Amino acid sequence: MRDLKHLYYFEKLLDDANNELVRQAKADGRLALGYTCYHMPEVLLNLEGCFSVRLRAPRTGSMEVATYYMSNATCEYARALLERGLEGGYKFLDAMAGVDVCECMNRSMENMELLGVNDPDKKNFFWCNLDSPCSDNEDCVEHLREQLSRKILKPLREDFGIDTSDQAIRDAVARHNEVCRLITEIGNYRKLDNPTITGYEFHILTLATYVCPKDLVVEKLRETLEELKTREPDPKKNFRAKVVVVGSEIDDPELISLIEDSGALVVADRFCYGSFPGRQEIVLTDDEDALTQVCRNYLQTTLCVRHSAQHKVQKRLDFAAQLAKDYHADGIIYEQIKFCTYWSYERALASHIMHNEYNIPTLSIDRPYMSRTSGQLRTRVQAFVESIEIKKIKAKRGQEVK
User: Fold this and answer.
1) Family, per the entry (predicted)?
2) Average pLDDT over residues 301-328
3) Which of 17, 128, 167, 345 could serve as 151's disulfide partner, Cβ 3.0–4.6 Å?
């Protein structure tokens, strides 16, 4: 396929947390609000005069200093963020909105605050460690609402003069939904028999919407969607199997590239920093205040393994199976960053259930934060693709015998 017109532009935006569009928005006087997790409702960080930046540590090398503070048996994502913060990579931020979701991220945020990775000249800079509930009932909704009102909206309103009214939240949701519609429509082209967009390309576009001011990328997303309407796929399929990738943080496009170079086209992304969940529209009604509805939406749509209630576990399993069906995938890859406590349990459980109860071929892997040089991982994906091909051959032979 011919290259997407804006792909290189989007790739360059991912080279640095303080990228070109972030600097442009900062020059316009807007606040840059850093956050790390789906449990921090992204839309509330995109009120008029603000924009959200989901934290990454692109081109991570040594993490020796962060390891000194956190030990080498903790999540590499959390350590990479701390290392980048200590290097001064997040001084452009005006606030850091963390979430109490796991011990590793707690320690990462705690060390960032104690070690002063923020710009000391920003007198109104604030830290937030949101106490996010572990389920989605109405008591949890109310608890999250109180936390967000006090820890996020209050300092934005009182210290920075940001409009946090009900109408301002509804306007932010409308802007958020426009980006979600574009990403969803672009992603639907992955459902084709011979998709006209690769998993790598889609991940690049999706990541850009997490780390850049959305209004500054929306026009190029529109142009990309129009481009895909007439983009012709390669006459011969350049993949051997289609897969859904499920798991923890993937903010490194090279991992998706590695999987696809091994013969497996990634057609759906059910992982942190992917489009499921995160790039689905938030539907608001006039019967209730917007903030409460936003809180309920995030608690009910989250697929995070931190939510261990039985109905949430079952929802994650059913959702992954439905993605495989909707996107015509041949298998699922369950992945986790090394030392991720929550996903180590979920991966072991789900990979077994998917294979034995849902009859979906499943590969289970753990991986480093940066996976681009992992020959072992490449070999395992290649072997998984071959196993899918063998299963198809056996199934075809069985049909011929009948």
Assistant:
1) Belongs to the FldB/FldC dehydratase alpha/beta subunit family.
2) 95
3) 128
